[in-house]
Amino acid sequence: MNKRCTLLTRLSIRARSTGDEENSSSTTLDTSRYTFFFHEFSLSFQNLIARVSPGKKWLENCRAYSVPASSKVVRDERFATLDDQDIKHFSGIVGSKGLVVDKDELEVANTDWMRKFKGSAQLLLRPQSSNQVAEILKYSSSRRIAVVPQGGNTGLVGGSVPVFDEVIVNLGAMNSIISFDEVSGILICEAGCILETLDKFLADKGFMFPLDLGAKGSCQIGGNVSTNAGGLRLIRYGSLHGNILGLEVVLSDGTILDMLSSLRKDNTGYDLKQLFIAGAEGTLGVVTKVAVLTPQKLPSVNVGFLACTDYTSCQKMLLEARKHLGEVLSAFEFIDSFALDMVLKHSGDRHPLPDAKEKFYLLIETTGSNQSHDKEKLDNFVETVLTQGLVVDGTIAQDNTQISNFWHIREAWFLQLPPLGKAGAVYKYDLSIPIKDLYNLVEILRERLATVVAYGHLGDGNLHLNISAPDYDEKASFFFQLLAKIEPFVYEWTAAHKGSVSAEHGLGFMKAHAIHYSRSPETVELMRKMKAMLDPNGILNPYKVIA
Ligand code: FAD
Ligand code: MLT
Ligand code: ZN
After folding, report:
1. Farthest-apart Cα atoms in the chain, separation
2. 177-293 is a CATH 3.40.50.720 domain
3. Which residues does the UniProt record annotate as the domain FAD-binding PCMH-type (predicted)?
């Protein structure tokens, strides 16, 4: 049976249903205090999932390899070192329940999700109100104590953990939903609300959060806003720049900026809240409240898993999907066969297309209000692309279980990476590249390196590149040799193709040095001036973004 017949058979037999450094005196980096951590790649899938689900122990079984940091970052000696008086003062602000000095808790909060970056904060604060955040920052500014705003600590660029001994200010205790207007769909909540909690709250009311990502069980809306998280359905719902209507932000001097508008239209002067949505990553202020426009949750969901022989077909598929699925298209994700095989091997998930031997796979989702109409649309679309030869094999989920299974495979694309590097490290890149050029980078890198795992949000021109070292032997020289093959090449190539070195994860600590690849010197200079104006003592998330 040829491929076309295979697909047609599948389609016919399966009924679908619902589906700043100036003047600074400094000391050199103490690598025992700031260390690059490599994963313990033999962590089980469950342990990895536990990181995404709060409340589970994940640090157990974790063996960390440390090598000297390649970065030349030094502690800024203008920052004060905490003393007893400071701790007493902070305790007076947040009370004993908001002040954490316990070693184990600090260990978790000091370590990033990738277990690649680790700080040595001696104090973690959990404010319970905007006023407490304001008091913390006011005092920290006056004493020049550096702080790191932290949400769910799921960031992938080392932005959410201290580089040295900065105080961690975690927003998790500020997790109240303030109001929800069922007519306008506008939700107002505190910054520490967990994304999944908000989505469940909204689902009960027939609405949904316009952002979805694999870390939803842990990430907080304040962290999402501060990184302008993109996620899986940006193609449909757009970025947070459009959906966030208002913010409350606390500046480094303790000023509470009330920009918590819940108006769809508000052109009164500069739209300052946008400064704190993406780009800022906790370097300009602490987001304490958020107003977001939420869409209706639509009942009809259909998901297809389709195989294409070449990248050109994937691009044409995007065009056709936009043409035929238009308003119902809600996700367009891609993975290549190398990555998919690896994910399936480690996750135990079943290949949705067991007979397919194609190089590219697409997960396409539609979401609408009319099941028969949406089903017919997807059927017609698949029939068209099949006839055009753009797709050679495919299947459409026939029930909610299958829909979840397909999405589970997608969300595992990243979670299943570590087993690949059982003997090594994973270098993670998150790039925006014009769609026509996007996969060229993967092929070029594959000529330089053994293992390159590629997937991403093709609909958004967002490539996730994950490079692992098959023979990592814990020697620093290997680390540097491998890294030299990747950087700065990946950044230079991306810049040469008019891409961005940070599509959705931000710059954090990992890519602060790379900002120049995607922003002009004049732009970076203006950013520095804005940072100096909003945070004159530079206490907010130092060494990050434009460090
Ligand atoms: P944190 O990691 O705690 O912090 C991130 C940054 O924001 C830091 O610089 C921190 O200082 C700052 N920050 C946090 N809270 C505040 C606040 N209240 N005020 C000011 N600054 C603050 N990202 C995507 O864009 N798309 C994806 O599809 C995606 N998928 C992911 C899947 C997995 C499994 C994982 C682990 C991560 C994924 N990420 C993705 C990355 C990450 O989840 C997002 O960047 C998320 O928005 C971070 O939220 P958080 O609450 O964990 O923030
Ligand atoms: C994703 O799309 O899964 C996330 O951005 C995490 C990753 O880079 O894999
Ligand atoms: Zn992503």
Report:
1. 78
2. no
3. 117-297
